[in-house]
Write a structure and sequence with these properties.
Number of domains: 3
Oligomer: single chain
Distance between the termini: 24 Å
Helix content: 25-40%
CATH architecture of the largest domain: 2-Layer Sandwich
Radius of gyration: 21 Å
Order of helices and strands: HEEEEHEHHHEEHEEEHEEHEHEHEEHEHH
Strand content: 15-25%
CATH topology of the largest domain: Uridine Diphospho-n-acetylenolpyruvylglucosamine Reductase, domain 3
Number of helices: 13
């Protein structure tokens, strides 16, 4: 495995690479990568942290746990709540900040705060020619031109190898409360979550366990204000049943990490669709189901080898194969086919940033070769 210690070493390794590189940090997020493994895990450490400016800069190989520890000591956090999928995917290693940004990994708080890419102030990366590129800065500002940092967020390491990330961070809440409703089917749950998210009570998490029929809503902030908001929200949602209100972090880490699918046999798919159509999509999908993001995202556990995209047909849901055997990935591909115009744009971007096709070739292809 190639383990560059700094950006200069990384550039040299890329320039001299004879073939594909399987780019990663801790390699905890799954996916089939071709080529010689290249890990940025040795490029680690917080470079700059200014709590008063809500700004943190860290190298890509910095463990997420270290970033969260540093922020926690100052009463701050990563607002986009990055998930840890090691239990679900059966992987080991240490999740890194670069991996979070490369996959745009965002948890339940996305419905209120935004995704990982929304907190990017800038980044450094090395492209497929070995050239180091810096984009953005260390303060939030509006600029013209191409925002390369947000372009690379979610590209799964196929456009460049991220070496450093600058992020906006936010204060951690003083208190957390969860409202739970029993007996909802997906349609009723989505309606309940939509009403909650459309309220003025600043819901920071809206999820549903379709097997148990439990819908959960999260409120965060100052303790007294959270208590008042929880009481008022429960009254507003009384048409969906009596809410059970609990204090503390609750089950949100498990919801974030889809923890109750860990160790259960079968393939796990991730669906994205408009919340108003999610119940219809899940009726076609079958299997065990978990909803997040107010019904905009669903995790579905189905028997191994099941063609979930075939079940959904032209419905319009974006189905990503999150966990499966190599044979299933070879049959269906991790990601769904892109529209022709989007596919052409993706090809042009990869040709520009990675002209030799070195970085994670085939990882984001609709169907493995």
């Amino acid at each position: 495995m190639l383990t560059p210690r700094n950006e200069a070493e990384l550039s040299g390794m890329i320039r001299s690479a004879p073939g594909p590189l399987a780019v990663g940090g801790g390699f905890t997020r799954g996916g089939v990568r071709e080529g010689e493994p290249l890990s940025v895990a040795a490029m680690s450490g917080v470079v700059l942290y200014e709590p008063d400016a809500l700004t943190l800069v860290a190298r890509a190989g910095t463990p997420v746990a270290e970033v969260e520890r540093v922020l926690g000591e100052a009463g701050q956090r990563l607002a986009f709540e990055p998930m840890d999928l090691r239990a679900l995917l059966g992987t080991t290693g240490e999740p890194t900040l670069g991996g979070v940004i490369a996959t745009n990994a965002s948890g339940p708080r996305r419905v209120q705060s935004g995704a990982a890419r929304d907190f990017l102030l800038g980044m450094r990366f090395v492209d497929g020619t070995g050239m180091a590129v810096s984009n953005g800065g260390r303060v939030m500002k509006n600029v013209t031109g191409l925002d390369l940092a947000r372009l690379l967020a979610g590209s799964h390491g196929t456009l460049g190898v991220i070496t450093e990330v600058a992020l906006k961070v936010l204060p951690a809440p003083e208190a957390t409360m969860t409202l739970s409703f029993q007996g909802h089917d997906p349609g009723k749950a989505v309606a309940c979550m939509a009403a909650a998210l459309g309220s003025p009570f600043e819901v920071t998490g809206a999820a549903h366990d379709a097997e148990a029929g439990v819908t959960r809503l999260r409120l965060e902030g100052f303790a007294q204000a959270v208590a008042v908001r929880a009481e008022r929200l429960a009254r507003k949602l009384s048409a969906w049943g009596a809410a059970e209100v609990s204090e503390g972090p609750g089950d949100w880490a498990a919801i974030r990490d889809v923890a109750d699918f860990a160790g259960r046999a079968g393939d796990v798919w991730r669906l994205s669709v408009r919340p108003s159509r999610m119940a219809e999509a899940l009726a076609l999908a079958g299997g065990a189901q978990r909803l997040d993001w107010g019904g905009g995202r669903a995790w579905v556990l189905v028997p191994e080898g099941a063609d979930l995209r075939g079940r959904l047909g032209p419905f319009g849901a974006r189905a990503v194969l999150a966990r499966a055997s190599a044979e299933t990935r070879a049959a269906f591909g991790t990601f769904p086919p892109e529209e022709p115009a989007v596919a052409m744009l993706s090809q042009r971007l990869r040709a520009r940033f990675d002209p030799r096709g070195l970085f994670n070739p085939g990882l984001m292809a609709a169907r493995a070769a």
